[in-house]
Amino acid sequence: MIQRADPARIRHRLPYGGHPGRGLAMVLVAFALRAGYALLAHGGHPVPASDSAEYDTVAWNLARGLGFALDGRSGPYPTAFVPPVVPALTALLYRGVGHRYDAALLLQCGIGALVPPLLAGFAGMLYGRAVGALAGWLAVFAPLLVFFSGYLLTETTFCVTLLVALIASAAWVRTPTARRALAAGVAWGAAALTRPSALPLPLLVAAWAWVPLGLSLGAGGRARQLGLMVVGLALVIAPWTLRNASTLHAFVPVTTGAGRALLDSNNPVVWNDPAQRGGAIGTYALEPWASRFRGLSEPAADTYARGEALAFLRAHVREWPAMAGAKLARFWRVRSEGGGTGSWARAGSPLGRLRAIVDPLLLWSIVALPLALWGLVRTWRGARRWFQLLPALVIVAFTLFALPFWGALRMRVPVEPLVVLFAAAGLDDVRRRWRSRARGLKLVAQRR
Predict the structure, then answer these.
(1) How many CA within 13 A on the CB side of residue 221?
(2) What is the pTM of this model?
């Protein structure tokens, strides 16, 4: 006899606070907010600028059948300067609607709208459905997540692939099976192809999972499942690496941009200008480097840039602490920024006038960051801290990634959902304490 499922039991499994429609509501509200922001901030006919222009160019060339290529003086040329996931997704869109950058922005808004329910699911796995619901709704309104959904960059999509990889990893460690180990590796491969900074993170996950896997599987089973995670990672990355080897005639696991990014942030121009210290500039179009890059292949230019940056760093060893401090200050800043990333809103637009009066990131940070610190403290003191501290390890990793490169809000976006997660844990703890205190006061009043 077929029995009807118990609705209460189904609600208990849901990470969105016990109602399946809550996740859909998060998506709809998040998309409306992000799409409205993109429209107001960039206008009805947005034009790609800075790094967004490179992603747009590669996507349009890919959509037209010209391959994964940038435009040069003699026409499109194969590239690995940008990771493939965002241009590939945008190319699929361009094949259907044509070369419309506004449609690409709406696609990014749609992808960004997936972050709140994914974060709710991850938080629900770690802390329970109450914290999951709080984390999801906080992510709907987080200013950094809203702002970067309005650009054709890797950050928004990487938030999604990173959360999927973290969910897969947590599910694997909680219930270790060969299939889940392989799935975690595949998820990390997708994250790495979205943004190369995910490549070292499987090592971090392996170190985090080492003890609990050993307790449940033994040494042999642990080694086999970690090997399966590596296999899953390789299966996703290897085809792209082989493409780069055959096209560029060099070993390029994901992108050729690491050396240039290192030089952009470690050079005399940046360090000698107090206004730019800790940030980055575009050395590819700035002398004396622009003429030296001219004529070099992408791998050769990347190698040259890396050598120049390392030479600068070796000549300024005593200033490394000051450099690190400047980059960390930019990474964890509490005010919005402009410059290379782009302004939060066009000057003269309604959002631009509002931004001149109040900084949304500052207001958010005054509340969210103390709650996140409190949530981290409560997690550290809790009985399940080993399992629940995975997001904190990822936050620390990305903070350290900023040290050799540069500090910016853009570098912080991928871990902003994890900061929101700890803020939700802190808010839930404050809420529980307040309710407990209110009940205690009520009981005392009744006794009187």
Answers:
(1) 14
(2) 0.91
Single-letter residue type at 184: A
- HSE-CB at 123 with a 13 A cutoff on CA atoms is 31
What one-character-per-residue DSSP string does 280-315 give? Answer: ---GGGSTTHHHHHTT--HHHHHHHHHHHHHHHHHH
- Give the amino acid at 304: Y
Nearest partner of 415 among 364, 372, 361, judged by Cα: 372
Residue 317 tokens read as 């060893």
Q: How far apart are CA 29 and CA 25, in angstroms?
A: 6
Q: By C-alpha distance, which of 184, 262, 196 is closest to 229?
A: 184
Backbone angles phi, psi at 78, to 5 degrees: -60, 145
CB 150 within 8 A of CB 37: yes
28's CB contacts (< 8 A; 6+ apart) are 113
Residue 191, classed as helix, strand or coil, is helix
Q: Cα–Cα distance between 205 and 126 in angstroms, integer? A: 15
Dihedral (Cα; 228, 14, 141, 90), 10-degree rounding: 50
Q: What is the pLDDT of residues 391-414, one digit of tens each?
A: 999 999 999 999 999 988 999 999
Distance between CA 36 and CA 30 in Å, rounded? Answer: 10
SS3 192: helix
**Residue range 75-123, pLDDT digits in tens:** 899 999 999 999 999 999 999 999 999 999 999 999 999 999 999 999 9
Please state whether 379 falls in left (phi above 0), alpha (psi between -120 and 50) or beta.
alpha
* Amino acid letter, 154: T
Three-point CA angle 371, 375, 377, nearest 5°? 115
* pLDDT, position 166: 97
